[in-house]
Design goal:
This protein is mostly helical. About 55% of the residues lie in helices and about 0% in strands. The two termini are about 35 Å apart.
Length: about 280
C-alpha cells in the first residue's frame, strides 16, 4: 500500500498552503543536517523494543500494527481532549483558533491511523476510545479551569512528541510508515511549542519542567514529572556532550528531546483511559 499517498489524501486535498506546510516532512530537514549531526540524532534514538502494559492490546512494540495502535490511542486521547476543550467555552478568544486548528490536526491523525491499521488487517476495537480527563478526580474541572486545560495540553503534547521518537526505530524497516510517523511527530512538536508559548514558557522542554508543571499541587507535579523523565540526559551517541562544548549544561539538556518507551507513555496516560 502507498502510505505516503494515503497520508497526502488526508492532508493535501482541499487544504490551504499553510495547512500543507504544517505537515512538511522532517526527512528533508534531516538531509540538510551535516552527516555528523545526522548520525548523532539517529544514534540518540533507542533501538530496544518495549513491552506492552496489561489490558492494553498493542501487541509488541516491534510489531508495526501494535505501534500504530499505540499511536492511535495517543491521538484519540488528544483529539477528544480538544473536542471537549473547544466545546467547553473555556478557551480564551485569543487562542480559540489555535485550539480549533490543533483539534483538526488531531482528527486528521486519528483518521489516518485508523485507515492505515485497517488496511494492514488490524482491528480498532482494542484501542482505547473513552477517556476521563480528570484522571479519576486527580485533576478536577479540566474544562472549567483554563490554566489547568493548558497545563494538561502541554503534558499531552510533550508526551506525544517523546512517544513518537521512542517508536521510530520500530518503523525503521518501512520507509513510508516511518516518514508518516515523523511527519506526525513534527506536527505534535509544533503543537507542544505553541501551547508552551501560550503558557509563557519557552517552546521546548527546559529545566523548569523537570519537577513537574507548576501551579497545580503535588499530585499534578508527580504525574507531570513522568512526562519529563530522562530529559536531564546530556550523553548522546556515546558522547558526553558537556565534555565537548562550552555551552551551559542547561542548554545541552534543552538541545534534545529524549524518547519515551511505550511502557513509560502508557504509565502516563493510563489514568486517563476508561477501561
Amino acid at each position: 500500500m502507498d502510505f505516503i499517498k494515503l497520508f497526502n489524501s488526508f492532508n493535501i486535498e482541499n487544504k490551504s498552503e499553510e495547512e500543507v506546510d504544517i505537515y512538511m516532512s522532517r526527512k528533508e530537514a534531516f538531509r540538510k543536517m551535516g552527516s555528523l549531526t545526522k548520525k548523532v540524532a539517529l544514534a540518540s534514538l533507542p533501538v530496544a523494543a518495549f513491552t506492552m502494559m496489561p489490558k492494553m492490546a498493542f501487541a509488541k512494540s516491534s510489531d508495526v500494527v501494535g505501534v500504530l495502535k499505540f499511536a492511535l490511542a495517543l491521538e484519540r486521547l488528544e483529539y477528544q481532549f480538544y473536542i471537549q476543550g473547544v466545546n467547553s467555552g473555556i478557551i480564551s478568544n485569543a487562542h480559540q483558533n489555535v485550539f480549533i486548528s490543533i483539534r483538526e490536526h488531531e482528527r486528521i491523525h486519528v483518521e489516518l491511523l485508523e485507515a492505515t491499521i485497517q488496511s494492514l488487517g488490524g482491528s480498532l476495537g482494542d484501542v482505547p476510545s473513552k477517556f476521563d480527563y480528570t484522571a479519576g478526580g486527580v485533576f478536577p474541572s479540566p474544562f472549567g479551569n483554563y490554566q489547568l486545560f493548558l497545563a494538561l495540553s502541554q503534558a499531552f503534547e510533550d508526551t506525544g512528541v517523546r512517544a513518537y521518537k521512542g517508536q521510530a526505530p520500530n518503523l525503521i524497516e518501512n520507509d513510508d510508515l516511518l516518514k508518516v510517523a515523523l511527519q506526525i511527530h513534527a506536527v505534535e512538536a509544533r503543537h507542544a511549542s505553541q501551547v508552551r508559548r501560550i503558557r509563557g514558557r519557552k517552546g521546548w522542554i527546559t529545566d523548569e519542567d523537570y519537577d513537574g508543571i507548576d501551579g497545580f499541587g503535588g499530585t499534578f507535579m508527580m504525574a507531570s514529572s513522568a512526562v519529563y523523565a530522562g530529559e536531564k540526559n546530556t550523553k548522546h551517541a556515546g558522547v558526553e556532550v558537556t565534555d565537548v562544548t562550552t555551552v551551559p549544561v542547561m542548554a545541552v539538556r534543552e538541545a534534545w528531546d529524549e524518547p519515551l518507551s511505550m511502557e513509560m507513555v502508557l504509565d502516563i496516560v493510563k489514568p486517563f483511559i476508561v477501561s
